[in-house]
Amino acid sequence: MRLRHKYKLIWMAAGLALAVIGSITYNSLPAEEEGKNTRVVTKTLEARYMVSKILEDKIQSHDWSENWQGEWNGDTKKLKVRFTIDSNLQDYGNMIFKRYKPDYGALVMFDAKTGRVLALSSFQKGLPTEKSLALRATYPAASVFKIVTATAAIDKAGVHPGKTIRFNGGNYTLYKKNVMSEKINRWTRTVTLRDAFSKSLNTAFGRMALEELEPETLNEYANRYLFNQDMPTDFPIEKSVAFVPSEKNYELTQVASGFNKYNKLSPVLGAVIASAIVNDGNVVIPYIVDELIDEKGEAVYKGETLERGQIMTSVTADGMREMMEETVLSGTSRKSFRNLVRSKKFKEVQMGGKTGHLTGDNPKGRVDWFVGYAFDEDNSIAIAALTVNEKYWTVKSAVVAQMMFKKFFDPVIAQRLAASKEQKRRLSSTEKVKIEKN
User: Fold this and answer.
1) Full-model pTM
2) Cys-Cys link to 132, which of 122, 164, 215, 293 (CB 3.0-4.6 A)?
C-alpha cells in the first residue's frame, strides 16, 4: 500500500540558511507564498543548527535527560529538553547490543513520515568512545550503495527490476577481467536486476552500471541521496561521502557495486535513504528534539517535519521497494527475517532492506549493514543497523533490525486485534438484542 504524507513542508532554502547548513536544495512553493515560506525554512534550518550545536555533547553521549543549562540566543538559560526518543525502543535497542556484544554496534530508527527519531543506540565492547558511533560516517557504504545505483538505473535509464543482466565471474568477487569483459561465452550467466540486488551480486551490478549508466548520472543520484552534503538535522552527524569516477572504468564498477572502501556512510543517512524509498521518493530529514521549554514553561523551540523533496518518481520507488522486499523474502537477509515474514500477525506489515558487508578501517573490522523499512496502513519506520567485528560474528545487523521491527509493531498489532475483537463483540451484542426483540 502506498503511503501518503500527512505533513508536507516543501520549502526553498534561502542563501543564508544554505551558507550555514550546507548545499541542501528544496522544492519551491507557488510564487505568492515563496517569500513567507522562505523565511519559515530559514528560521527552521537556523534553529536546527543552533540546537545541534548547544546539545552536541548531550546527544553524542546519549544523555536523554531533560535538564540542560547553557547559552541560548545570547542568554544563559535553564531549559527542559524533550526528546523524540521512545524509551521502550531505545532501551530495547541498547539491550540487543548488550546481549550480543558485537565489537561495535550502532542503530538509528525514525518515523519515516515525520522524521521523529525513535531510537539512537551506540555500543562498543570494552571502553566506549566519547562520541556516538551512530553519528559517525567512517564506515564503508559497501553494498548499501547498490541502492543508489539501482535508483539511478530505474529512474534515469529506464531499467526495470526484471531487466536481465549478463555477467561472467563469481557472485561476490569483482575481478577486473570479468566485469570489464563484454564477451559472451558458455560461462556467461544471466540474472535479473531484482535478483542481483536482493542477492547482492557485485559483478552483475558492475556490468549493469557500465551498460546502462553514465558516471555523471551515478554521481547525481549519490548527491540526491545526500552524500557529500551536510544534512540539516538538529543533532550532530558527520557527512557521508561518495566519490564517483568521471569515466567508465573498473573504478566505476567498484563504486556502483559497493566494492569500495572510500565511499563512507553514516547510519543516520542509511535510515534516511530507506525513508526516501518507503515515502515514494520523498526525503525526510530526521530530528531528535521535540521541544525546548524555558523556566516560564514556554516553548522556545519546537521540532518540525522537514522534507528535502522528491528525488525519484513514485514508480521508481515502487521498483526499489520490490527489490528491497525481495532481499527480505529470498535474498541476503531471508534467514534473519524468516520467522517474522512467516508470522500471520505480521501479514499486514511490509518490510524491505539492503545488506552490505566490507572490511573497514575506522573502526577496524568486518562491517555488516542493514538499511531498511517496515510499514503498514498507519505506520512507517526507517532503520539502519550496523555491527563491526574484528574476528567473530555475534549478531547480524539484519537480526537487530527485525528485532526492532517486531518491538515496534507488536503493540500496534495487539491494539488492532483488541479493537477488532471489541467491534465484533459489540456487533454480536447488537444482533443478540435484535433477535430477543423479535
Assistant:
1) 0.88
2) 122
